[in-house]
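Priority: medium. Attachment 1 of 2:
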């Protein structure tokens, strides 16, 4: 899976998911297809959630290149 522009490539197919350019019905179908076919274990390896209190340390790690993938900041935690 890779992102190029406003498309997500998934096993050779493309799903348009950009909210600005795709109608709601098409976005919903794209996200449903992605949820059905996405390797959840792989996603868990490239994404994580951290509390807002961890942001200063995370910022240092990001700048130093020690963070790979995506981090969602939980503003309630």
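Attachment 2 of 2:
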């Amino acid at each position: 899976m890779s992102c190029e522009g406003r498309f997500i490539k998934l096993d050779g197919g493309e799903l348009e998911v950009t909210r600005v350019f795709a109608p709601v019905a098409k976005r919903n179908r794209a996200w449903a297809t992605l949820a059905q076919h996405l390797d959840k274990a792989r996603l868990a390896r490239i994404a994580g959630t951290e509390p807002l209190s961890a942001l200063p340390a995370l910022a240092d790690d990001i700048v130093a290149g020690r963070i790979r993938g995506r981090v969602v900041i939980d503003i309630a935690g």
